[in-house]
Amino acid sequence: MSPEQFHKIEAIFRTAVQLKPADRRAYLEQTCRGDSDLMAEVQSLLSHDDGVGPLAGCALENVATHELASAVRGWGGISDDALTPGASAPGPPSAVQDASRYTGRTRANESEQEPDEPIAGWLVCVGGPHVGQDYRIRGAARIGRSSQMEIFIADDPRVSREDHALVCYDSRSNEFRLAPGRARGLTYLNGALLDAATILRPFDLIEVGETALRFVPLCGPLFQWPREIFRS
Fold this sequence. Notes:
Radius of gyration: 18 Å
Structural class: alpha+beta
Helix content: 10-25%
Largest sheet: 6 strands, antiparallel
């Protein structure tokens, strides 16, 4: 399973698990857009979660559990032995030694391969339909209501479908910036209207539609990924 497929399953599951069972089918049909395999994987996660509450943390953190193993096995690329509960996982290599793992991801609906980038920070929803959900920042991330956006905010009709705003991490300057998008939706930074690209500071508050997002950086003065694993 590619990181992009896993992240898409996780994002859809996080939204669906908060809905009433009667509303989930309509949401999955709209979001999965006829992708029966994608819908089946999310439904499998939901069926395992029923009666025990939302899975704690990111779905990737549960990759060694039987429930998630059975849900993702069909996507391929992970052996049954590797997904057996209690199996020891290989230790993480250093960022420089493992630079090659950021260079083989195939984007959906694209024939060429583009390299992935490590997580540089997060946006955490502190207000709106998805309070508590986190969104990962990897390089440049578009904010919008479409599932094609890197920061996909569903169920907020006041968020523009595409390009409501753009948040990006610049590995050269080791800084984050927020810029208004090409859509009509307005973006506010710490209560003020955003009309130009602005440097983000830790725990800045971003408002788009009815959604409030708190900025939480990983990269900054105390930590920076080696430049070798970035595209630019």
